[in-house]
Each structure stands twice: as structure tokens, then as C-alpha cells.
């Protein structure tokens, strides 16, 4: 993967965020049939709407990793607020077993930035999340 600088009328940027967050009580929601597929579809829709490029996304049974390239007008908090809000609402509407939880996601999340040097490393790490226990 080659990092590309993103250009707007007033900025040139390369901002990559690695996000990790999990469901409330570390529930294994991604083991429920079709939840992971629908979650990824929703993330793609949200990212297109916010002009975020998805570098990598992967779900384990009780958490998810996302590696995203963003414009400088978006803060990590804005990104998480939108992603958690939209996915929680949609998944709880579509999968009735998720309605038993008081809320779908925890309020916390992990975020780190990655520059040119470690972007490829983080991308491989995120993509290999499912295979690390096999």
C-alpha cells in the first residue's frame, strides 16, 4: 500500500487512524450470523458519506479494528460518534437479540495515529486479526 496525500482546496494531508472498540460487556456480537457483514456494510456507507477512506477493517468475535484515512476537518471523536451512533441504531433495529443490551457499544475506544512508516504494519496487523488464533 502506498500512502497518498489527500488534497483539498486548502490542505494537503496524510492522516491515518487505527481505531479499536468493542461491544458493551465484550459481548460476542460478531458471532451472530450476518452481524459482521452488516456492520462492515454500514461502515462503508458512513465512510463514503464522511469522505473517509477505509484502508483495512476487521472484526473479531468481541471487538473490531479499523484503519482509516481521514481529512483534517474530522477529529477521532467525531468519527467514533458517527460510527457508533449509526451502527448501534441500525444493528439494534435489524437484530432483535442486540436489543437486550442497554447500549451496543462501550463509550470508550482506542485510537492511534500512523504515519508513513507504520501504516503498512498496522494494515497487516488489522487484516491478520482473524487468523492469529488459528
Number of helices in the DSSP assignment: 3
**Relative helix content:** 25-40%
Mean pLDDT across all amino acids: 89
Poorly predicted runs of 5 or more residues: none
Described by strand count, sense and barrel closure, the largest sheet is: 4 strands, antiparallel
What global shape is seen? globular
Measured on Cα atoms, how large is the radius of gyration? 15 Å
SS elements, strand count: 6
Structural class: alpha+beta
The N- to C-terminal Cα distance equals 25 Å
Q: Strand content of the residues, in percent?
A: 15-25%
| H/E element order | EEEHEEHEH
Record the strand order, biggest sheet: 4-5-3-6
What can you tell me about this protein's structure?
The chain has 134 residues and is an alpha+beta fold. The protein is built from 3 helices and 6 strands. A hairpin with a 2-residue loop joins strand 4 and strand 5. Helix 1 packs across helix 2 (76-94). The longest helix is centred in the middle third of the chain and has 19 residues, at 76-94. It is globular and about 45 Å long.
